[in-house]
Amino acid sequence: MKINLNEDNFNFTTGAFGNILQRRRLIKNNGRFKVLLFFILSMSMLALGCAAGGGGILGVSPKLDQNLENAWQYVRTGDNENAILAFRQVLEQTPNKAEEVSSHTGLAWSYAQINDTEKSIAYFEKVKGTSNDANLGMAGVLLSRGKENDYKNAVELLKAINIHNPDQQYISEYRLDISSAQAHALIGIAYYYTGDNKNAKLHIEKAKSTDITEGESAVSKIANAILNDLQLEGY
User: Any residues with CB less than 8 A from the CB of 195 and at least 6 apart, and which?
Assistant: First the structure.
């Protein structure tokens, strides 16, 4: 009984610090189990050590860099409508390639966070492969959409930034507060949906063991749910 992700129970949204919220109810039937699962991965931007420059990747125009920084700040505070307007304004000012990539990445995250999956994916398509954050963000949205090949494509996006290596640390170019535990939890989920139980278990256990969040964290909750399900499947 795979835990199902779809747009009805996976809301790619942000609060004060930005959250991904996944909810799935598994109903006990013929010896199976019932669990109400809340999966929250914090996607907050780091507030410390932020220099101006398009949320972490610099262009050459100080004015556009400041405009980009302002746009990313809207994303940090969950003001995604203003973020979208701000990134669009940058794109109207003849940005260089780095500024254009930063704007498209910001738009992708902003649309993802208001659950506009198709617009988000359209912008992520423009920037996939340009940063860890672009690939991880797109992988998350694909898992949310859950169409044919989305799970496999999510795995490939995360493999491209080496998250399939259990020892890989996650580094965010756009100063997103995404932990390595969360990144490995995400690829573990992607493997889980492709039926690769071996790698799913490997990365979920890695995520659980490296999660430093106090108390019962979101990573811990999803890890326990998936590991229990794999055990029920005899793995």
Answer: none
Q: What is the pLDDT tens value at each position of the chain, 235 positions in all?
A: 454 444 333 333 323 222 332 333 332 232 222 222 223 333 332 222 233 334 454 444 566 788 999 998 898 788 999 999 999 999 999 899 999 999 999 999 999 988 899 999 999 999 999 999 999 999 999 988 888 899 999 999 999 999 999 999 999 888 877 889 999 999 999 999 899 999 999 999 999 999 887 777 778 877 888 888 787 666 6
Identity at 14, one-letter amino acid code: T
Task: Tell me, yes or no, whether 164 lies in a domain.
Answer: yes
Task: Report whether 50 contacts 152 (CB < 8 A).
Answer: no
Q: Which two tokens stand for residue 24?
A: 């799935």
| Exposed e or buried b per residue across 190-213, where buried means at least 16 C-beta atoms within 10 angstroms of its C-beta | bbbbbebbebbbbbbbbbbebbee
Per the structure, the count of domains in the chain is 1
Sheet holding 10-13, edge to edge: 10-13, 19-26, 35-42
The domain of 18 spans 10-232
Sequence-distant (≥ 6) Cβ neighbours of residue 44 within 8 angstroms = 17, 18, 76, 176, 177
Is the pTM for the entire model greater than 0.90?
A: no
Would 4 be classed as within a structural domain?
no
CATH number (domain holding residue 135): 1.25.40.10
How many Å separate Cα 187 from the centre of its chain?
A: 10
**Residues 35/229, Cβ–Cβ less than 8 Å:** no
